[in-house]
Amino acid sequence: QLSSTFYSSSCPSVFTTVRSAVSSALQSDPRAGAKLLRLFFHDCFAQGCDGSVLLDDTPTFTGEKTAVPNANSLGGFDVIDSIKASLEISCPKTVSCADIVSIAARDGVVLAGGPTWNVELGRRDSTTASFSQASNLPGPQLTASQLINVFQAQGLNTNDLVALSGAHTFGKAQCNRFQSRLFNFNNSGAPDPSLDASLLSTLQSICPTASTTLVDLDQGTPVTFDSQYYKNLQLKRGLLTSDQTLANSTLTSRVVNTFTSQSAFFNQFTKSMIKMGKLGVLTGTQGQIRSKCGAINSS
Ligand code: HEM
């Protein structure tokens, strides 16, 4: 059972500490908020929102960080570590890494112009992480029906899927995640027909090969958290297969159309974030409060 007032007496400064750290991270990295939001998603989908994604590998332990969706891709760890270091001074052994990620994700959204919500708190940190559970994370080639199944396995429905995918309203992706759409889609010898011609030629020139070059997920308003993502999908300007499929499939297209209204999108997004934030949480005396987010406590 999580609660938005969990730290009201034990660490009242937690929200200002996180907000100012995310804000200062954004000064040097305009993608910081996007990285933190994605970090939360990747934490929650593999073994629950328990900070497991933050654990570093050791010689005898392989966690989630090096799994395919995360390796050379996931960011924001430095921001979480620095927030943790500040909180260990102001409120020692009190605030879990899993909760820090959940607040930082919210603040990344708010500071990019998105909606706010009361983050529910009281998660504890895992003492394990699961390399294999990282395969619960959806890949960028999935179709709408496959995405629906992946989200359903976590207890999330189609509205949650489409709303949470709206996170791709900011941040970037590497060419290698979508380059297969550009020249030889599904071995057809031609590009993906559901990709707008002018975006296709732009992307073909930026991504002649499946490189690690970064491209904005939202070509319209790349650093703003808004409903432009859904308008892009209607214009065949979604970047990943897993984005564009949401407008192409009758399973999801009506929800996409609904979320072109920013208030409808924001309303569902906040609800779906709270719901995702409850997946597989540890509470009470389960797990621990890590002193450093990258490692379990030594004693
Ligand atoms: C629906 C299935 C999803 C798929 C297949 C997917 C896949 C991806 C991929 C492939 C990237 C680019 C990674 C890279 O190139 O290194 C990415 C980036 C991103 N994803 Fe997703 N994602 C999904 C859902 C979500 C959800 C639910 C959220 C958060 C609520 C999210 C937030 C983000 C953000 C913010 C970025 C940009 C991160 C940055 O700039 O570093 N994604 N996603």
UniProtKB/TrEMBL annotation:
One GO biological-process annotation of the entry reads:
response to oxidative stress
Where in the cell does this protein reside? Secreted
**Catalytic residue list:** H42
Pinpoint the site Transition state stabilizer: R38
Q: Where does Ca(2+) 1 bind?
A: D43, G48, D50, S52, E64
Question: Where does the chain bind substrate?
Answer: P138
Reaction catalysed by this enzyme: 2 a phenolic donor + H2O2 = 2 a phenolic radical donor + 2 H2O
Quick one: which residues bind heme b? Answer: H168
PANTHER family linked to this entry: PEROXIDASE (PTHR31388:SF5), PEROXIDASE 72-RELATED (PTHR31388)
Full protein name: Peroxidase
Q: Which organism is it from?
A: Riccia sorocarpa
